[in-house]
Amino acid sequence: MFQIFNKWKIYLQKRKSRKDPATQEDPQPVLLQKKDSFSPLTYRNPLIIYMHVILEHVLACKNLACRNMELVVIDAEDIQDEDDNDIQLILDALERRLNYLLLVTDRPDSYQRFMDEMYEENGLIVQQIPKSALRQARGNVILDFERNSGYAPDHAASPEAIYMPIYKRPWEIRENLDILVPVGYNTLVVEGILPPEWNAGGSINERFIKDRMTDRLDREFRKG
Hints:
- It is a single chain.
- This protein is α/β, with parallel strands linked by helices.
- 33% of the residues lie in helices and 14% in strands.
- It is built from 5 helices and 8 strands.
- It has helices at 2-18, 51-61, 81-94, 112-122, 204-223; strands at 71-74, 101-104, 127-129, 141-144, 162-165, 172-173, 179-183, 186-190.
- The strands form 2 sheets. It has a 5-stranded parallel β-sheet with strand order 3-2-1-4-5, with no helix packed on it. A 3-stranded antiparallel β-sheet has the order 6-7-8, with helices on one face.
- Helix 3 links the parallel strand 1 and strand 2.
- Mean pLDDT is 78; it is low at 1-12, 14-34 and 219-224.
């Protein structure tokens, strides 16, 4: 019990040290917004912790086997703690399923530890290219974590790739817990992902914060 409390204390200290000194509270996630008020600059995707499962469903809809996935991750534009956590969360969940990974980033040092771990634990050599070379990217699935730039299908080398913008369009949840997943300029309906608890008690914001906190605490604990 003491060890769990101690890890929790360390985690909170880390989170506090990463915050903007001028900001006393974490920004509230923006969920289920009206389209006329949606902003990619402030959007917090409510489905990050389910992204690996959602991706499996999207691949099935597109008749692409997971083992044939060639994943391209377009890095966030700035060093934003929450966005970096989202990227790491998804990569951690997918790491044992990846046979190919290309990071499009202008800050390669930020991913060196992850690349080393992927090679040591899974034998995968993670590739990197700068964002200026995005047209040279090879892959059939693109996860775009940028907020300010245009859609990747407009300038990427593989316009036929499955393109999923993480922040540029809202990931909406219907009352029956179906998820509306942005894929390129279209939307796919994914069913059966969210637990029934999402429909009972508490606001979506509260459930969203609780789920993401639980998952990130688990990652911190596993790192020691």
